[in-house]
Structure formats: C-alpha cells, structure tokens
C-alpha cells in the first residue's frame, strides 16, 4: 500500500528516557513533516525537511532532533523526555511544487505517554 | 503570520441535519485552503481543498467555498450521517516561502446521533 507509516503506534516511557519515532513514506514525495497534537487536539508543526534539508523548525526544544537519512524517511528522536511531551505525533509528506498548493498526507500517528 | 479560526464546538447533531462549521483565516498573499478530517483513533485525511478565490471544494457530500472577500472557508453538508462523527480541521498553506507549512485551526468535534 502507498502510504505514510509510523512506528511505533503507541509508546509509553518514563520521564528522563530517550526515545525515537520512525516515519516512512512510499509516495515519492520530497518533503516530510512532524506535527504534535496535544490533548485538546490542537495540531502544530514542529519540523519540515525538503530533500533531506531542514526547512522548518518551529521553536521546538532542542531535546527534539529530527533526522532524515533519505527523502523517504524522517525520524524524530527525543532526549530527556518530560511529562509535557505526552501527545500524539503525526508524520506527513508532500510533493513541494513551489506554488501555494501543498497537499499533505498524514501517517496514523504515534501516541507518546510519558509517566 | 498566518492563522485559522474555526468554531470550537463540540457540535452535536441528529442524523440528516444540516451542518455548518465556520472557518476564517488570516494570511498574506494567496493561501490554499483545506479541510482535514480525523476519525476516532486515526490520522488526518484530506476532505477537500480550494486553491484560489471562489473555488468550491467538495467531497463525500461536504462543500466549502473559498471566499476571499470575507476570508472564510466554511464547511457545509446538507445531511449528516453517524459515520461523519469526527474532528474537522480547517487549515491553510501560505504562498511563497510559507507554502510548506500547514497552519491548522483548533478543530471542531462533530458528533452525529442516530
């Protein structure tokens, strides 16, 4: 199936731990994103990569480090997890056109719970 | 910067009722406008889109018209079904350098009762 996939779907961990979330897309897109959805369902972009280059970094704590080994993958590593990091993290991808239209395709989300 | 304001809800309707979820935006230039839907326990799916003024996006009985004069993109459906119960997000991408970034409204929870 062509899609954006994320692993794991659920992640439960203790405060202070380091964890990673992986994202892969087989849509042939050149741009990938990470969004955070809080408990009130509010969605906010965190990072975006275009052709493995960071293009958006939205005032995210430097405990969060995205890594894009190739155009099809964008992983998110989080150091020293805090309670406030508990959220659902969505990966997305799109094909950058240079114009104003930029449909993004979303993964199923990773629910992170920090205890 | 860009922003999106939508009805916060929750909205509760009976099956076959008419639905309107209001959305207004602030953006420079010529944004593209979207409605995304998130069904319980799932990721976001694009419901419909409009890329220029007066365009009407439509899908699955939902419609929204890009109104530049009122900076609005209200979502409507004539007859909702129980299966439409979900969270609906209005969103935009800017033009030029900000076209990579989707700015979302806060989402509107819709519950449709049989």
Descriptive account of the structure:
The complex is a heterodimer of chains A (115) and B (114). Chain A is 0% helix and 55% strand. By secondary structure, chain A is an all-beta fold. In chain A, the strands form two sheets. In chain A, strands 2, 4, 5, 6, 9, 10 and 11 form a seven-stranded mixed beta sheet that branches. In chain A, a hairpin with a 2-residue loop joins strand 5 (43-50) and strand 6. Chain A is globular and about 40 Å long. The N and C termini of chain A lie far apart (35 Å). The mean pLDDT of chain A is 90. By secondary structure, chain B is mainly beta. The radius of gyration of chain B is 14 Å and the shape is globular. Helix content of chain B is 0%, strand content 50%. In chain B, strands 2, 5, 6, 10, 11 and 12 form a six-stranded mixed beta sheet that branches. Chain B has a four-stranded antiparallel beta sheet with strand order 3-9-8-7, with no helix packed on it. In chain B, strands 1-4 form a two-stranded antiparallel ribbon. Chain B has strands at residues 3-6, 11-14, 19-21, 23-26, 32-38, 44-50, 56-59, 62-65, 75-77, 86-93, 102-104, 108-113. The chains are: A mainly beta (115), B mainly beta (114). The A-B interface holds A 4, 31, 33, 35, 40-45, 48, 50, 55-56, 90, 92, 94, 96-109 and B 29-32, 34, 36, 38, 42-46, 49, 51, 87, 89, 93-96, 99-104, 106-107, 109.
Integer-rounded radius of gyration of chain A: 14 Å
| Low-confidence runs of at least 5 consecutive residues of chain B | none
Oligomer: heterodimer
Average pLDDT level of chain A: 90
Pattern of helices and strands of chain B:
EEEEEEEEEEEE
Chain pair sharing the greatest interface: A-B, 31 and 29 residues
Q: Pairing-aware structural class of the strands and helices of chain B?
A: mainly beta
Distance between the termini of chain A: 35 Å
- Total E-strand runs of chain B: 12
Estimate the helix proportion of chain B, in percent. under 10%
Output the radius of gyration of chain B: 14 Å
Task: Report how far the terminal alpha carbons of chain B are from each other.
Answer: 41 Å
Strand content of chain B: over 45%
**Strand-and-helix sequence of chain A, N→C?**
EEEEEEEEEEE
């Amino acid at each position: 199936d062509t899609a954006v996939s994320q692993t794991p779907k659920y992640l439960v961990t203790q405060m202070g731990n380091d964890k990673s979330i992986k994202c892969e897309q087989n849509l042939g897109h050149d741009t990938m994103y990470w969004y955070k959805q809080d408990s009130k369902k509010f969605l906010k972009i965190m990072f975006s990569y275009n052709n493995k280059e960071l293009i958006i970094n939205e005032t995210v704590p430097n405990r969060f480090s995205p890594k894009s080994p190739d155009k099809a993958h964008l992983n998110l590593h989080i150091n020293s997890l805090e309670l406030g990091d508990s959220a659902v993290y969505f990966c997305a991808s799109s094909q950058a056109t240079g114009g104003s239209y930029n449909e993004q395709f979303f993964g199923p989300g990773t629910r992170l719970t920090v205890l | 910067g860009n922003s999106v304001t939508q009805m916060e809800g929750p909205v509760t309707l009976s099956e076959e009722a008419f639905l309107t979820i209001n959305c207004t935006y602030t953006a420079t230039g010529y944004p593209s406008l979207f409605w995304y839907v998130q069904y319980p326990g799932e990721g976001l799916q694009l419901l419909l889109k409009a890329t220029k003024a007066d365009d009407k996006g439509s899908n699955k009985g939902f419609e929204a018209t890009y109104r530049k004069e009122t900076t609005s993109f209200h979502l409507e459906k004539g007859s909702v079904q129980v299966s439409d119960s979900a969270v609906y997000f209005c969103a935009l991408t800017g033009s030029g350098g900000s076209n990579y970034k989707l700015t979302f409204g806060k989402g509107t929870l819709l519950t449709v009762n049989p």
